[in-house]
Amino acid sequence: MAGKRKRKNGAERPGIHPRNKYADNTPDFGLLSSLYPSFEPYVFYSRDGRPKIDWTDFNATRELTRVLLLHDNGLNWWIPDGQLCPTVPNRSNYIHWIEDLLASDIIPATRADGDVTKGFDIGTGANCIYPLLGASILGWKFVGSDITDIAIEWANRNVNSNPHISDLIEIRRVDAEGTMYNVEELHNEGRFDSNSTNARDDGRASTVPEPHLGVKKSYNGPPILLGVVKDGESFDFCMCNPPFFETMEEAGLNPKTACGGTPEEMVCCGGEHAFITRIIEDSAKLKHTFRWYTSMVGRKFNLNILVSELWNVGATVVKTTEFVQGRTSRWGLAWSFLPPSRKIIPSHKIEKNNLSFMLEGLQRQHSAFHVLQSVESYLANGGVSCKLDAAAFNVDVTASKDQIDAIVKTETHNKSEAATCHHELNVSSSSSSSQPDALRFRISVFQQNPGTLLVRGTLHERASSIPGLFSLIFRHLEEVLTHKFHPGKVLAGVPSSNLEK
Ligand SMILES: C[S@@+](CC[C@H](N)C(=O)[O-])C[C@H]1O[C@@H](n2cnc3c(N)ncnc32)[C@H](O)[C@@H]1O
Fold first, then answer.
1. Which CATH number fits the domain that encloses residue 295?
2. Which atom of ligand 1 is nearest to 125's Cα?
3. Domain span at residue 166?
């Protein structure tokens, strides 16, 4: 598990956190089965004599988590059938990343010296994994919130089964009904972009059709931080493993593991983007109540959008990291509203001028030229000015901030809407080339070998008022082209309608 692994493009993949207990020693299933008879039935031996478990068996993964928490952390733990079962090494990485953030002097400590570090775990779940790990490994205090009866009941059970740390952890039920109206009122005082959330008469969020953009889904669930954090409270950090998905079908896409997970745990309206956007909105209200706000993000596409949202609401520092978990990657997003102790050059200000990705597994009928045409039609449908040079295999692009925002935010366009947008946005596109603050870049496509293309973006002129915009649109393009040309690889929910002609 330790060490760095290579990606296909040769870059190193981040490995397990060096302070993670499992960085140098992966769990020894043979040893654990000899020590814990309840684990033994789940362990079998492969031909080369290595002990294994069946990762698609929920009972096996739950028993592994139970024995690891007991053996390595002295924790008593259990969850009922079907609840989300955490993997200890993966969850520990997030804890150690927060430890790094707190130890760095980027944002100075706000609470008095000697105060025990205090965190807020949004959606602690029945498994209560982050408070249990944070309290047992690092002695941190926690408030763990949740909305479901089963999560509250089992999180409390898990805390009370560990009297040595139970004083450090408070499980807090989110009052879904009582606070909703006030929270929505706060959000509609005019502080936030009313494109994303409007209050109806009953105070609940509604989805608001945006001009030219179709319908953008916003979070309409119970309060998350605002209305849950009490007056006068302050925290060193918050953390969150959000409901990543919009539907259970999306959530069940990985048949290789059986980690359980009920709809309440896995799904929310608008998926992780909407959920984390609400955390961002709450944080912009609560500001210095937390030294660091953090969340896990499941899709890189969302990470890029969320980073932009954070700069828009005035975060002073934004940091990201990648957690590699077996074959999947997750990302960590952290931000603050406190003044940094030293001058930070935000990563968007040192934006790279060259970005690239590989498009693999292309079918024979799809040539580099088809990909180039798709790039052109995708951007042109968003009203952006494009010039395709078929001989040189590139497209020169000039775009305004509004046009790129519109492309990135578009979620659902049916064909007739797309046609209307095309027309309307093309009207504005004619002015984009004369706009002084425009983004100019070139997309080139190179054949690497049969079925594999390299797509490269080269930034020619950066729009001064639009930090991070080039990488945002380029990553979006990556997702859209992957969706079209290598659909097996796509993550659900990626907008593709602009390509469907
Ligand atoms: C993906 S699970 C994470 C559980 C656990 N923290 C983990 O990492 O395994 C998301 C959790 O968020 C909870 N949740 C959903 N909306 C919430 C809200 N508004 N406030 C607090 N918890 C919420 C769900 O009930 C669920 O337990």
1. 3.40.50.150
2. 27
3. 89-107+117-344
